[in-house]
Amino acid sequence: MLLGRDHAAELARFWNLERDECEYFIGLVDLSRASSRHLRGLIKDQLQRLKNQRKVVSQKILGAEQVTDLKSEATYYSTWYWSAIHLLVEIPEFQTQNAIARRLSLPIEIVQNALIQLETMGLVKRSEDRWIPGKKNIHLPEDSVMREMNHMHWRLRALQDVQSKNPASFHYTSVFSVSRGDLEKLHSMMTEFMMQSRKLIVPSPAEELCCLSCDFFSV
């Protein structure tokens, strides 16, 4: 007996699937029951759209906000140290201008100016002689004009770290050939890893400032 949509929905609820996973599973059930070529084609198109949406990591990051306006967004993502300073103040030992400047090897004037502007964006707050976090869970949308700049700045920082030969760092590059089917599987694995990493990172106590970069593409 073929599985019906009602039973599929109950199974999805029992398995505690996310909304898009639920829709995909029910779509697979519909595909197995479809008898006409036209209907099967429509369902396959719908399933492909769901797969494409799943690949967009920004749609899976719940609770993340954007920087307040386009001018602030352009400033925040114009170079690497804005986000570094923003997140570094979560760590108690780096909540003063001098401590931040030493950690990031930046002139104190740059740190002072950045903190003042981050305060106007609502991303840090002044508390007597210290700086503490404001909003911290922000995310740059996939369609932002600053997306390429943000990736480029942090990858340049990663290259600097490679050159420093820091034994605590992890850098890995692999070029390989693979089947198209396995390419899809690798993409899904990486997307799932990114989402699982967010679940670990968001509640984690602030003790170290880190950068996670992941590049995976067809050449």
From TrEMBL:
A Pfam family this chain is assigned to = DUF4423
Domain DUF4423 stretches = 72-219
Q: What's the protein here called?
A: DUF4423 domain-containing protein
Which species expresses this protein natively? Sphagnum jensenii
The organism's taxonomy opens as: Eukaryota, Viridiplantae, Streptophyta, Embryophyta, Bryophyta
